[in-house]
Amino acid sequence: MVKWTDFERATIKDIFSKIDSGVVGSAALSRCLTVYPWTQRYFGKFGNLFNAAAIASNPKVKAHGKVIMGALEMAAKNLDDIKNAYTQLSILHSEKLQVDPDNFKLLADCVTIVVAGQLGKAFTPEVHAAFEKFLAVVVASLRKQYY
Amino acid sequence: MTIMLSKKEKALIKEIWERLTPVAENIGSEALHRMFASYPGTKTYFSHLDISPGSSHLYSHGKKIVLAIAEGAKDISQLTVALAPLQTLHAYQLRIDPTNFKLLSHCMLVTLACYLGEEFTPVAHAAMDKFLSAFAAVLAEKYR
Questions:
Q1: What GO cellular-component annotations does this UniProt entry give (chain A) (predicted)?
Q2: What is the CATH classification number for the domain harbouring B88?
Q3: Which chain B residues are Cβ-neighbours of A8 within 8 angstroms?
């Protein structure tokens, strides 16, 4: 059971209210595919991922980014039980999609950087640390059903 | 050690660090502060300094780190030569576990994202991540 301080709860809620959710998921996925090109192995059906510009404008990347964002918002709304909230997602990623769970950290880092870019000075080290903790719990929950 | 950076990427990296050199202590101290806040285990290497937010030690140490990175960025093909003294320092005296370099690099990228906003494009991010990974790898070369 993850313990959240009042500051962490308030901060995570605040971050999600401030960020442009239509953009964050897609921008993070786009960055992940650009900065860590080997992650493209899981997106063979997405078409043109040949360079940064193609990735950024790819409609399937944008659409999938929104799916990812939805899952993050779901986690933010279920802070006290992300593990259970993510059971099906974890099974999906391990059994059907067969994604190496080390990749979750790569995407999480990209999410952090996109949020940092959007919030600028407001993304103080303390706010940043709360967000890192949140993403670490999300990543751990996604890893939970891997056997 | 081959570093896969194109000419454009090297120029971009060099330009960004040149621009940040005047605020080296701000960038450096912020990256360190982020690392200590998100990854408290990293604080164990700094028991000899006052690393509380805003302390003069944090600024001077952050400045040192950013200036070393900026110096490396001036001629990336010569990283091993430029970092030789720091390699020795880290291998024989500081002996910081190299996994920590990734943590500081990540916090450095987050700091850059906050400072540069839109300008820290995916292409710039990719180039910078590659550079910092290479920098860290060279730094750890004399460990064993």
A1: blood microparticle; haptoglobin-hemoglobin complex; hemoglobin complex
A2: 1.10.490.10
A3: none
